Amino acid sequence: GQQLNQSPQSMFIQEGEDVSMNCTSSSIFNTWLWYKQDPGEGPVLLIALYKAGELTSNGRLTAQFGITRKDSFLNISASIPSDVGIYFCAGQGSYNTDKLIFGTGTRLQVFP
Amino acid sequence: GAVVSQHPSRVICKSGTSVKIECRSLDFQATTMFWYRQFPKKSLMLMATSNEGSKATYEQGVEKDKFLINHASLTLSTLTVTSAHPEDSSFYICSAPSLVGFSDTQYFGPGTRLTVL
After folding, report:
1. Which class for B42: exposed (0-12), middle (13-18), buried (19 or more C-beta within 10 A)?
2. C-beta atoms of B108 and A43 within 8 A
């Protein structure tokens, strides 16, 4: 099945550092989403982006919807131990009933 | 709001048996639900779209006779893995679209880990 390219694949950082990850696609999407998944659990929505160029924040998280509609990035500022997990981007059409295409994931490890 | 549950959370079965996994939207109705499969350290791969009142739509390469989907009501979709084999062992996750605040998108269940012996 189709997947989006997400980088980096994994990150090992120290508590307090900022983190940046991005997602690229060969196809255009009208919605970009970022999820976090903890081991053995389902993904949890972090941020949803609906317009090209949109920059949205949710606490220490900031995400942007690329102008070309083919990419998105997620930044986490001042990382804390509970940020540990796997982060997935997902592209979607215009409607919330459209299927999601997931990125390959970024595994984040935060050391105290 | 926008809570999606799955049952069971974990199941172990013998090769050749069938296993049913339930996905429920607890506080909203969903005419569409999605079923994903996730192998260890991999991303989520969409298997099929479950449609209330009509047949499911399967992604390319997914055997519809092996993975039976029934969207019995506006709050329940079931995935039955028929004649399960060890290679079917995986983490199965469902999602349903809903509007919560300003986020009009899909919310995921906690997943079901299937182990076929």
Report:
1. middle
2. yes
